[in-house]
Write a structure and sequence with these properties.
alpha+beta, 7-stranded antiparallel β-sheet, 6 helices, globular
Length: 315
């Protein structure tokens, strides 16, 4: 559950309109179609739509977690700890399926924003749509985005299928590590058969997580940025970057920084080894992390590095 609470927290803080809607359109990389408000166009950085001029977005996330687990993250007390204000809840029907709607307020990047969040799912998987817009534009955007979310329709028989369309990047699997899951612009690689792997730092098996930033970021010093990113790796404690491992690399024509770190699993204090590569391209960064038990690091670090070096930016 901790993994998906963390995922919800990330979605609540990420991404940074008119009343007429456009025709329903399938969102590449998902099983979902929605009718976006006029002025929105498909994003090249995440699965969903955005209106850059209005500072608004609609993000679609298909997650391998039970609906009740995701809904738990919207308990008001939990939201308060994340700096989120629950403004209201509703239930609705979308194409004969019950959906849950949450309206929240939040301060993000020194701006007050409102969000409509729609949840739908079952005991195996969940669908989360997040519509974000400036709070000052509530009268113009609030209802339009809410209607767009409720227009959501899922292609029958495609729920949970791995779809790599419009990802914006590609990687090559290794003999042991295969792509087992996509969540928005994030890929999870693990051992074959681990269709729904445990949290990345659980130490159950070697795992890689690959993702691109949802928006343009002013990175500055990529080495300092990379060290900070490593120190913020979720579910790890006692993180110590191996300074001698830090090096600049060229990944298919793009500047990157690679490093290693020692750490402990926050849950059971098991020693872990972490590989990280961050590549920058036109203000977007791509992060690749490989996590493995320290005792298995000699076997898997070469695989982590080989997969990372195969990164090709296509978006």
């Amino acid at each position: 559950m901790k993994m998906f609470r963390l995922m919800v927290a990330v979605l609540l803080t990420s991404c940074g309109l008119l009343n007429a809607a456009q025709a329903a359109e399938r969102i590449p990389g998902t099983s979902v179609s929605i009718e976006p408000p006029a002025g929105f166009s498909l994003s090249k950085q995440f699965t969903g739509y955005m209106n850059e001029a209005a500072g608004a977005s609609i993000m679609v996330n298909e997650m391998p977690a039970p609906l009740e687990e995701i809904k738990h993250a919207f308990i008001p007390d939990l939201m308060k700890t994340q700096g989120v204000r629950l403004l209201g809840t509703e239930e609705a029907v979308s194409h004969e399926h019950k959906v849950w709607l949450y309206k929240i307020g939040q301060t993000a990047n020194n701006q007050e924003v409102n969000k409509w969040i729609l949840l739908q799912g079952d005991s195996k998987r969940s669908l989360m749509l997040v519509g974000t817009y400036p709070a000052t534009e509530e009268a113009k955007l609030g209802d339009a985005i809410k209607r767009s979310l409720i227009s959501m329709e899922v292609a029958q028989g495609e729920e949970g299928k791995l779809n790599l369309d419009a990802l914006g990047y590609s990687i090559q699997e290794s003999d042991n590590l295969k792509i087992v899951r996509r969540v928005n612009n994030m890929l999870i690689l693990s051992l074959p058969g681990d269709a729904a792997p445990a949290p990345a730092a659980a130490g159950v098996q070697p795992m890689m997580v690959i993702a691109s930033s949802y928006s343009k970021v002013a990175i500055g010093d990529l080495v300092a940025f990379s060290e900070k990113h490593m120190m913020n790796t979720a579910s790890l404690i006692e993180i110590a970057v191996q300074k001698e491992s830090i090096k600049s690399v060229d990944i298919n024509g793009h500047h990157g920084v690679e490093l290693l770190a020692n750490a402990e699993n926050a849950k059971n204090h098991e020693p872990m080894k972490v590989y990280q590569l961050i590549v920058e391209s036109n203000g977007t960064y791509y992060v690749i992390k490989g996590l493995v038990k320290a005792e298995q690091s000699e076997q898997y670090l070469p695989e982590f590095r080989k997969i990372a070096e195969s990164l090709k930016i296509t978006g």
